[in-house]
Amino acid sequence: MLEHPLHKKIGDILSLLETSIIKIICDEACGGSQQISLFAGNYKGRKNRLCKVDAMIIQDGLGRIIIEIEESGFIPTKICGKYLTSALSTQYMRDKESIDLKDILFIQVIDAKKLSDDKIKQLELIEERLNEIHFDSVKQYKLLPVKKDADINEIEGIVNNFLSASKRKA
Fold it and tell me: Checking DSSP bridges between strand 91-94 and strand 49-53, what pairing results, if any?
């Protein structure tokens, strides 16, 4: 299996956030043991599976946060493609489990250690533009560029702030 150090570090942080009402699901690259398949529609099949994501957070039985981690390939088409296929999805399904995806925060973690300032600005522009678009599932997009290892820790605050705000709205 390929080494994905950023994936593993994010998975380790996320695992600490699990509680009785917050379920953390990580794929194998993030230290979990499964694939996280998202589907368009409420049935499970190859023709409606749109993507697989790196991590997902379920709160009160609903999919609330999707996390996608990019350690290479920072072209806008790849970045936006990961977002769009997730935004078009309506369900997470595994075995007999089916979870609705609604009012999702999509967090895209980017290994930005080798990126130029221009590339970071391009990614920030993408973040700004994606937040102007709203789907039934994904309502908010957050870019987390990781230039130094300490930046990874920001994910905890992003997740906690979003989940706390979601609880207040409910």
Answer: unpaired
